[in-house]
Amino acid sequence: RASLLVVTFIYFTRIIVLLLGATLSFESVWIKNVLDEFASLGFYAASGYLFRPQERNPYIPLDTSELDPDTAQDEELETLQSESTNNLP
Which of 43, 44, 54, 63 is least surrounded by Cβ atoms within 10 Å, i.e. has the fewest? Predict the structure, then answer.
């Protein structure tokens, strides 16, 4: 989905907007810039929505031990305890 978004953005801003700008009269050239800016805004909003933080994000896997602070603290305590018992004579 992300690659389709990028390809659509590139084709729209590089081809469609330029073709439209070539056919517009001198007084309406500003429409080309407006379309380009709205395309950029839409692209950034869509990519932000696509890569938003979520629990099961396929693009950015999260470490589950960091999500539950109680579990992370228990694991750290066990690690410290095992290290301290290994160092005893």
Answer: 63
- The b/e string for 17-34 (b: 16+ C-beta within 10 A; e otherwise) is beeebeeeeeeeeeebee
Min mean pLDDT across 1-10, 24-33, 45-54, 62-71 is at 62-71
Distance (Å, whole) CA 35 – CA 22: 14
d(CA 84, CA 79): 9
pTM over 0.70: no
Neighbours of 70 (CB within 10 A): 7
Torsion-angle region of 53 (φ positive above 0: left; ψ -120 to 50: alpha; else: beta): beta
